[in-house]
Design goal:
Blueprint (H helix, E strand, L loop, with lengths): L5 H13 L2 H8 L3 H15 L4 E3 L4 E3 L1 H26 L5 E7 L8 H10 L4 E7 L1 H10 L4 E6 L8 E7 L1 E6 L9 E2 L9 E3 L6 H13 L6 E3 L4 H9 L4 E5 L10 E6 L7 E7 L7 H12 L2
Helix pairs in contact: 1-2, 1-3, 1-4, 5-9
Pfam families: HTH_1, LysR_substrate
Keywords: DNA-binding, Transcription, Transcription regulation
GO molecular function: DNA binding; DNA-binding transcription factor activity
Length: 295
């Protein structure tokens, strides 16, 4: 008897489960003729008939019914073996996503600490909004991400980190800039820059629920994606903005940052999200993120 291979077993298993050569070919991304030839090849190697076909239906023979559970077990064992052996290989890189909802410099201590702790590993950074980072986790493009909460996390493991209270960014020439602390009521008559809901739906809804509780309904302006453009507009007196505290690190002539009375209530919370298959350095990443991102 000639040896059979996993390719033939895979074709047999899909065909046996669908009992439809056309559907089986579609699932295997091949055309029907090579599928039929593969089944014939397998039958010749085994010396038994596996399928009964007529113009109306496809059925398994007694031999085919006996082979199916064995074929599925062999394929599952091979998949498990491949997964297990892959887990023994230390990855050469850590692909880390970082939210753009906070000032990028907030992460400098974390990334520097990772470079020191993992000298033989490349740390690849991706900056994006939190929903897109979660999507990248799901697609397997990154291993972990620091995201802004609340964000829909698709049931991936999430570990809470620190938080950043909201503050007011305002033109230094504005009379309100003379105060040390402002409230939402103080800026209710000012144009307020705010991000669009599509960028971060859950956090947008969270903020606006708090705005409703405080009867805060100013004229909202669309916040530019580039924070330097935003601060330039604020310096020019075009409006004010509510920003996480880390943005105080962005110094621009003409822009003042003031504490917000409701800042803790509106605080942006940070969290570490990881994929279903955790990277071997996940615990180290969480420890360092907790150390350098806690506030």
């Amino acid at each position: 008897m000639s040896k059979i291979n996993t390719h033939l077993l895979q074709i047999f298993a899909v065909t046996a489960q669908t009992l439809n050569f056309r559907l089986a070919a579609e699932q295997l991304h091949i055309t029907q003729p090579p599928l039929s030839r593969a089944i014939q090849n397998l039958e010749q190697r085994l010396g038994v008939k596996l399928f009964l076909r007529d113009t109306q239906s496809v059925q398994l023979t007694s031999a085919g019914k006996l082979l199916l559970p064995r074929a599925l077990a062999i394929l599952a064992m091979l998949d498990d073996t491949e997964t297990f052996m892959s887990s023994l290989v230390e990855p050469s890189q850590l692909r880390l996503g970082l939210t753009t909802s906070v000032e990028a410099g907030s992460f400098s201590q974390l990334t520097e600490a990772l470079a020191i702790a993992l000298p033989g590993m490349s740390v690849e950074l991706t900056y994006d909004n939190s929903p897109k980072l979660v999507a990248a986790i799901k697609a397997g493009r990154i291993d972990a991400a620091v995201i802004a909460m609340p964000t829909r996390t698709l049931d991936f493991p999430v570990q809470s980190l620190g938080q950043q209270p909201m503050m007011v960014a305002i033109s230094s020439k504005h009379p309100l800039a003379n105060r040390r602390q402002l409230s939402l009521a103080d800026i209710a008559s000012e144009p307020v820059y705010h991000f669009e809901r599509a960028r971060q739906p859950a956090f947008f809804d969270y903020c606006h629920e708090i705005f409703r509780r405080h009867h805060f309904a100013p004229r909202f302006l669309l916040e530019p994606n580039d924070h330097h453009v935003l601060l330039s507009d604020i310096a020019a007196g075009k409006g004010v903005a509510l920003l996480p505290a880390s943005f105080k690190a962005l110094r621009l002539t003409g822009v003042s940052y003031r504490k917000l009375k409701e800042g803790d209530e509106l605080a942006l919370k940070l969290a570490l999200i990881t994929g279903a298959n955790a990277h071997p350095q996940t615990n180290l990443l969480f420890d360092l993120a907790g150390k350098y991102l806690q506030t």
